[in-house]
């Protein structure tokens, strides 16, 4: 609506003016396509358009993580595998691939030597040149400690398992081309913005170098455009089977390390930053925390800032790009663009539609009320033979379940994530009870004839 568009432009204008960015661009993606784009300032004397390249810094890590998950889904590695199994000469051979993705390997944040983002990659020609005398600063797997060097190792992992092909070529062929992202590159292509530092006490500019960072490139080398990043945001929201499934993207958005404090407002999944905006506790001191949950990444390289956030519940993304080294909270700009639309124009639910294809009557017979002890639940049938278990009493553990070829289901979220749901049938073939990770669900509350662990008092219910 016009009022929303004005609010979006105003937020972008405030970000550019107060952050003193030579230029700033923003976009909102909804329903898999850009629904608003805006620009302030100038590039080469003109207002930038959506095909102008900016350096996106650590948003590069989201691309590297997708390539690693593709290798996992192809059966070429397990996330629990130690990196030393695939990459020789690493200082942390026992750190797992999952720990590197989630920045919990304990590796040092930065490579040794001069500031890697402003110096040529030739200064560190070999992997051993990335690490100093104390490469590991924390015990692996215990805490989140952001590590650019960890993503250098993940780039080497991609190259090792793709027969020595460079990670950039793998990225282009397996990810960028299928998604139509032809303007996302390792080196800048015209038209592109120049990177600037802005003097802290005067409105003066200083050009920043744009170095090829060599082995550190998987940590932050990529250049991209607003148009391409809208495609990337749509992919992160919905997945694309040609690149990575929605299930694997859900896994990337799941917190992979414990929060540092109660009521977390930031975390990290597998290659994705996680933030909770406007977090608040509900239900008093012991209540749950609420707030809009976003996934994505911020990025910075000398002369550039970038941010991309997605909200899967709203099917919405916000993107912001600027060509300055510091001065503007680019992550807040991207998040605000998203929230302006979410607050002013909340998502309209997709139309309800019946299940497609022939209805499996055996599955339909499983639906309805089930009881864990005396606690009532409902089992619902979803598309592709999926099941959903929801509590009916206001308390209890809800979860979604994916159908498996062997006739069982695997939990996707909540307490039962990864657990197996089995239907135990009676002699006549009817469903007798459900076994969910040893928890027994029966058709009635504490049925005397049911296989309730520990048995049921012979006199049954009483007053």
TrEMBL record:
* GO molecular function terms listed in the Swiss-Prot or TrEMBL record: hydrolase activity
Keywords, alphabetical: Hydrolase
Ranges where the Beta-lactamase-related domain occurs: 16-334
Q: Does the keyword Hydrolase apply?
A: yes
Give one Pfam family, short name only: Beta-lactamase
Q: What is its EC number?
A: 3.-.-.-
List, for all copies, the residue spans of the domain called DUF7586. 360-443
Secretion signal, residue range per the UniProt entry = none
Q: Which PANTHER family match?
A: D-ALANYL-D-ALANINE CARBOXYPEPTIDASE, D-ALANYL-D-ALANINE-CARBOXYPEPTIDASE/ENDOPEPTIDASE AMPH
Q: What is this protein called?
A: Serine hydrolase domain-containing protein
